[in-house]
Design brief:
Helices cover 30% and strands 28% of the residues. With 618 residues, the chain is an alpha+beta fold. It folds into two domains: 238 residues, Beta-galactosidase, Chain A, domain 5 (Distorted Sandwich), CATH 2.70.98; 355 residues, Glycosyltransferase, CATH 1.50.10.10. The strands form ten sheets. It has a nine-stranded antiparallel β-sheet. Strands 2, 3, 4, 5, 6, 13, 17 and 18 form an eight-stranded antiparallel β-sheet that branches. A three-stranded antiparallel β-sheet has the order 29-30-31. α5 packs parallel to α17 and α9 crosses α10. The longest helix is centred in the last third of the chain and has 18 residues.
């Protein structure tokens, strides 16, 4: 049984088909992706987006295959592209079905023949396999024209004289290396003939990049065309790879569509496991990894993966901080967050609670590592992060963004949250309690009690019936629900219920929590336009699905369990518009259009954690 199916009504509705993006990954940060109708709407779409080295420095090598069926003496185009003022060709009109089975499968009917296209990536290789099978009708000819980009995935290609069009051809294979510094790509095929072309195709338009206020036109190069005899007994196949001897088989993904989605985020960087924050443009981020880890690994039974990730990040602690970002260029990781390190304690706590893996503490030295982080925060570390006399954490200055609300416009923080931010105190209190419990440390227990008292005294806003977002800042934001959802909570139950009522009234939407109440004059209800406009809205009203995690967890703890009801809109979105994934964000205003990355780790992670019923013990 297929994991997900879209019928003719969706596939031939061009607007709907363009809004649904499929994703296939290779466990190294590389991927293949496009819309279900085959029209690339992002610069990041491509059949072979390679991770060099994994999972960084991604490059779009093979953009797509232009496909033509020749049947009964007529040509039928199966491809779909955007060009200036026109959609050409319009192969989506022949697309009768798309499904995940468990890989992306496209069924076309044209010229009296029905054929099926399957795409999958080989695990641990930058290799994509595309197979075509004739399902019904007489024998026909399939023509494929590879269109190559060979560029960084944030960039665009334009016709140029520097491209080397030379093909190395041998039997059922050829290879090309258009530019020095990028890998040679090897194509293996069973075509009956290859014709050298060496032509540029001009002015492909990527509509989503246009909407984002970015460059959106690209030229692609066609090195050759391939002709295949497609019969009931003989399929057509083409493999594109950075490997000289590419494999073609891969293990089937999990049979559950949400477990399949989780699987796509868990990758290896060199010899360690990590989590890709989002497709198509994020790499691995420390904060996102710690928030997403329980749902992506523990809720799906991947305990060994969770253990490896936690140990890998523990091994990268520096001055009491976890790395937050691993740049695309492969340069040194960045230590620039106050919350990512503190989320590490909650991830460790959930791992221990669900696995009972006491060896994890005894053999690996994890207890000592947690205590090392605590002491660094008490004494002070980068960016002025330190504990004050009341046991609270202060961090940063007006020029820094150290919490997850980190957007900047012209170098200036859009949402200044330096000093004492509400979720940082909650995470710090939780970290103290976790470490004190694991080490039976009476001094840390006493310090946690002091921190909890200071937290309640400083952050309770009686007039609003909720918590200040930053010391003396009455903005109604979702960060306060994090304080109610961690393993150890310092907020009394009566206050917690009042907080939840405010958050539900002001911030809750079907797809997550707004980042600012609509009544606030700074509220931005649409995340669209050029980068400066979008960054100004990123945490000023935009809805984040992952925030349903803390909200529902707190609601379970202090009110009642409404998880199934509150998660249903996200579940329905993933099974339709999301093509098996959940996006990074939605607009704050109805109808809450999805924005940002179309597949985001912490969105899916928190959905899976809640679905599995993983919450702190009451």
């Amino acid at each position: 049984m297929s994991l997900l199916v879209f019928d003719r009504a969706v596939c031939q509705n061009f607007e709907e088909a363009c809004r649904r993006e499929w994703l296939e990954t290779n466990s190294r940060g590389g991927f293949a992706s496009s819309t279900i109708c085959g029209a690339n709407t992002r610069r990041y779409h491509g059949l072979l987006v390679a991770a060099l080295p994994a999972p960084q420095a991604r490059c779009v090598l093979l953009s797509k295959l232009e496909e033509t069926v020749i049947a009964g003496g007529q040509r039928f185009e199966l491809s779909t592209n955007f060009y200036p003022g026109v959609t050409h060709p319009q192969g989506y009109r022949s697309l009768v079905e798309f499904r995940l089975d468990p890989f992306p499968v496209f069924t076309f009917h044209a010229g009296g023949v029905t054929l099926e296209k399957r795409i999958h990536m080989v695990q641990a290789e930058n290799t994509v396999v595309v197979d075509y099978q004739l399902l019904e009708g007489p024998a026909c000819v399939l023509e494929l024209r590879p269109l190559i980009a060979f560029r960084g995935y944030h960039d665009l290609t334009h016709a140029n004289g520097a491209l080397n069009p030379a093909l190395n051809e041998s039997g059922g294979a050829f290879s090309i290396q258009p530019y020095d510094g990028l890998p040679r790509v090897f194509f293996t095929h069973n075509a009956r003939s290859l014709t050298r072309e060496g032509e540029w195709y001009f002015n492909f338009e990527y509509t989503l990049e246009h909407e984002r206020g970015l460059d959106f036109r690209e030229d692609l190069f066609c090195p050759c065309s391939l002709a295949f005899d497609l019969t009931a007994a003989e399929n057509a196949s083409i493999i594109a790879s950075t490997e000289v001897q590419a494999r073609r088989d891969r293990p089937a993904p999990p049979a559950d569509i949400f477990a399949r989605a989780a699987d796509q985020f868990c990758v290896r960087r060199d010899s360690i496991h990590t989590i890709i924050a989002g497709y198509p443009w994020f790499t691995d981020w420390g904060r996102d990894t710690m928030i997403a880890l329980p749902g992506l690994t523990l809720a799906t039974g991947r305990f060994d993966t969770a253990r490896e990730i936690l140990l890998a990040f523990a091994g990268m602690v520096n001055q009491g901080m976890l790395p937050n970002r691993f740049p695309d260029t492969g340069t040194a990781p960045e230590y620039n967050t106050v919350d990512g390190t503190l989320w590490f304690f909650e991830a460790v706590r959930q791992y221990l609670e669900l696995t009972g893996d006491t060896e994890f503490l005894r053999v690996t030295g994890m207890s000592g590592k947690l205590n090392e982080i605590i002491q660094a925060h008490i004494g002070g570390t980068r960016f002025g992060i330190h504990m004050d006399s009341g046991g609270l954490i202060t961090a940063g200055d007006p020029a820094t963004n150290l919490t997850w609300m980190d957007a900047r416009v012209n170098g200036i923080p859009v949402t200044p949250r330096h000093g004492k931010a509400v979720e940082i105190q909650a995470l710090w209190y939780n970290a103290l309690r976790v470490t004190a419990s694991l080490n039976a440390d009476a001094e840390l227990t006493a310090l946690a009690a002091k921190t909890g008292q200071s937290f309640n005294a400083l952050f309770w806003n009686e007039a609003a019936g909720c918590l200040f977002d930053v010391e003396n800042d009455p903005s109604i934001r979702p960060n306060q629900v994090i304080a109610l959802s961690l393993g150890y909570c310092a907020i009394p139950a009566d206050r917690a219920r009042r907080i939840l009522a405010v958050v539900e009234r002001e911030l809750l939407t079907p797809f997550g929590l707004r980042t600012l109440a609509p009544s606030d004059p700074r509220y931005r209800g649409r995340y669209q336009g050029p980068p400066e406009q979008r960054d100004a809205a990123y945490h000023q009203g935009t809805v984040w699905p992952w925030l349903l995690g803390p909200f529902i967890t707190a609601d379970r703890r202090f009110n009642r369990d409404r998880a199934a009801t509150l998660l249903e809109p996200l579940r329905q979105f993933a099974l339709a518009r999301g093509t098996g994934q959940l996006p990074e964000i939605f607009d704050g205003d109805s109808p809450h259009e999805p924005r940002g990355c179309f597949a985001q780790a912490w969105s899916m992670g928190e959905f899976l954690r809640l679905t599995a019923g993983i919450s702190p013990r009451l």
